[in-house]
Amino acid sequence: MVAGAALVIRGVDAVFLRLPAAIVRAILVIMLVVMPSALLVGSGNDTTQVVVLVAIFAALFTLVEYSAASPSLVEFRDAPPFNRTRFSALFGMVFCLSMIFRGYDNPSRLTALLQTTGEAIGKAIDFPYSPVRLMVQMMPAGTDLALLDRIRDAAGLSYLIALFSIVWFIVLLRLHRWPRRGGAFNVWVNLPTFDPTAGGDVVLRLQRDGRINILLGFVLPFLAPAVVKLVAVFAAPINLDNPHTLIWTVAAWAFLPASILMRGVALTRVADMIQMQRERLRNRATAAALAGY
After folding, report:
1. Does any domain span residue 190?
2. How does pLDDT run across 27-36, given as a tens digit for each residue?
């Protein structure tokens, strides 16, 4: 009984130790959600109400996931900087796009710089069969040329941020020996959606899931505009005249493939770590057996 009570007290203490960091993350999530409405001029009351509601739910979800003893959906919670890199990439995309569209109504040096950068990157990446070209071509015929230019500039800048986040995560992975970084790595806490008892070898399943995620991350930027174009043929075409819709659509188009690809790299890394641990244990067992003779 005493040992059980001690474990409960220790678990409660751990929750309270994680609570301040969880609150900070929840605040950052609120800032991310409300950023376009705060930066853009002329956001309507209906838009503001929806944004506030989404921000509250996102903050509560983040608070629960990062303060609980074991998360239910968030992967690699205790293996930084995986989630930090992904959040920073999304935050950078939304901020840059919001500032670009803010510059059309309230120009400044920063908005002009981001607009010029987005235009240069968009033109550089806008070649046949590129993700940016496909993103522009998914718009219905007769779309205003100014809107197409804005979509191209936003897509180019977002895609560059996504590529940089992938490269940065791979660099950190190599430099800091992620995910262990000198400490223990709990597979069950960091991979709550992965069931190690579902059948089959854990390493093979992680490697398979990692390869699928990497492949999907490469293909999704090319596939998503085609799917949207196909849906527009049988349903209503997508309307990106609203800056809020355009910001979140382009950010999701660039962020989701990058996030999936980083997850594939992370799963592959975890599989390699487990495989190396097995080999070390096997070598120790072999050495102990030989020493016994």
Report:
1. no
2. 999 999 999 9
